[in-house]
Amino acid sequence: MIMCNSRLPLLFFYAILLVPHVSHSLVLQRDPYVLHNCSTSGNVSSNGTFRANLNTLISTFSSNTQIDYGFYNFSAGEGTDKVYATGLCRADLTPTDCRICLNNSGHELLQVCPNEKEGIMCDDLVSKLTEFNEVLSTLFYDLRVGASAGGIFRKVAVGNATYLNHTIYGLMQCSPDLSEMDCSNCLVEAQSYNKICCNGSLGVRALAPTCNLRIESNQFYGSTLVESLPSLSPPPVPSKSLYPPPVSAKGKKSNTSKNTIIIIVAVVVFVVLIICLCLCLRVKKQRKKVENVLTCYACEAADEISNTESLQFNFPTIRVATDNFADANKVGTGGFGAVYKGRLSDGQEIAVKRLSMGSGQGVLEFKNEILLMAKLHHRNLVKLQGFCLEGNERLLIYEFVSNGSLDQVIFDPTKRADLDWPMHYKIIVGIARGLLYLHEDSRLRIIHRDLKASNILLDDEMNPKIADFGLARLVLLDQTHSSTNRIVGTYGYMAPEYAYYGHFSVKSDVFSFGVLVLEMICGQKNGYFRNNKNEDDLLSYAWKNWRNMTTSNIIDPTLGVGSKPEIIRCIHIGLLCVQENVADRPTMSSIILMLDGNSITLSVPSQPAFLTHNNLEPDISSDQSILASINEASITTLYPR
């Protein structure tokens, strides 16, 4: 439930023009800050006497400097062509600002109601709305941090901020049973409604089942709450009396108590500063230790793959191979940096992933990809040739895959037309076999966690190769699932149990595989799916058409009709992969059997995940503070594991 009070009085004024004084029907049209309406009582000519009188009357407002109380009431002309106009400004505006507003409102009214005989214009002055929003955003942030960090008995924070001559008071509160992250996520989502419905409003209330926020222009919370909580706002400056009060014996005792309190506070602040300094030094030392350990891990990985082949490349070798990372050799750019094509001295072509200085991929993710890829070998996994770590440079060197990534083909109308269904099917099966190797056939059990079209590379024979293992997780062979507080990946490919609760398993990759299959058949991205008939997401639209036996609606016309039964079977398999219930999704070994022949009877899928949540925007991570991205690049942040 959302309730919005009136806009900040200081940010706007209004001028009302009525022409003439006759009753009329009111039809309002509203943009973010302007209200106007044009009557239907009669029309006038743009070059007639009535219009000339109106122009004269409107100019009278801005030229009249005698009136300084903000109310204008004039008329011009005679008889039926006589025009009346009234203007009213907020009482706190200067006469100059009032005349500017009336002048602007008058000319705007002539433009929006050029031939009408009556009109009204309400104009808001919002030139300082951005500054107000900045003040409000800072208050929101302070309150959210304070409330989220609350104890197990209550999570609440109050505070205020000053904008010009007005004080804005705020309160945020969560259920005590929420974790710090869940409380922050709930308040972020509640705050997002303010931006949607109440931008610039002075009063806002957002009530959710587990959290709430309130912003008002007056102090609506009690003083007892202020005294019991840490202050988020600077204390008011006490007024100074012209004559100091006489000091009594009681006053001396009070001064002694105050001095004692000041000393205690100073000691506490000093201790806190010392603790903070120690923590900063410890964190810096740990980061240095992580960077030093990285080289040891990489060397261990190099020893494991072969005694004759080294993973370690020196930076000058890669710089020469890529012609000093020339733009002409750049073949792609992701969220972590650019990818360059290179050629070693022996003629071998390589792809070099150069992590940018400000990349979200940290040392741990860099190490993670080296260790995993050095131990994995499969025709449907991209092969890691080595790495380079010198100074600030972090490079991953892969085999060069000539046909780029899958998203560059299936989402491009021209390239998609050259990719027939047998080639689509070959790619689907290849991706499935690569995932089966990760989940069951390798000596490790790997959960990719970021399977999507841009992370599937195609070689010169259009064989798919799964790439980008920076977010992958290693689990025990007999481990069915795991969980994390740090959700990473790409929204739109995430399984619901992972996106909402951080629970992941091999079935999380199965969900992403199902999304990928449906994208390939439809030719549209899940996160950017557009359908003229309704507002369904891709998964819901595919399931409804499969259920209604109208699957032709979701099949890309370029795939042809000759292989329609096989295409429909792949749609069926894709829908089984994106089931809401984890147990209802098949394993990759079952999917391989389903794809290899028609002898296996497929179960009937129920409605897919997110069918009831299709009011969520796919490219904003639901404002849940999920470390996720849209379908262009993965984003992650360095955390200790």
Automatic annotation (TrEMBL):
Membrane topology, record value: Single-pass membrane protein
Coiled-coil positions: none
Alphabetical list of PANTHER family matching this protein: CYSTEINE-RICH RECEPTOR-LIKE PROTEIN KINASE 27-RELATED, RECEPTOR-LIKE SERINE/THREONINE-PROTEIN KINASE SD1-8
Subcellular location: Membrane
Record domain Protein kinase: where: 325-610
Primary site of residence: membrane
Pfam families given in the database record: PK_Tyr_Ser-Thr, Stress-antifung
InterPro entries found in the cross-reference section: GNK2, GNK2_sf, Kinase-like_dom_sf, Prot_kinase_dom, Protein_kinase_ATP_BS, Ser-Thr/Tyr_kinase_cat_dom, Ser/Thr_kinase_AS
Keyword Transmembrane tagged: yes
UniProt-recorded Gene Ontology molecular function terms: ATP binding; protein serine/threonine kinase activity
Sequence intervals crossing the membrane: 261-281
Protein name: Cysteine-rich receptor-like protein kinase 29
Gene Ontology biological process terms, A to Z: response to abscisic acid
Residues in Gnk2-homologous domain copies: 114-220
Origin superkingdom: Eukaryota
Positions that bind ATP: K353
UniProt GO cellular component terms: plasma membrane
Keywords tagged on the record: ATP-binding, Glycoprotein, Kinase, Membrane, Nucleotide-binding, Phosphoprotein, Receptor, Repeat, Serine/threonine-protein kinase, Signal, Transferase, Transmembrane, Transmembrane helix
Signal sequence coordinates: 1-25
Alphabetical list of SMART domains matching this protein: S_TKc
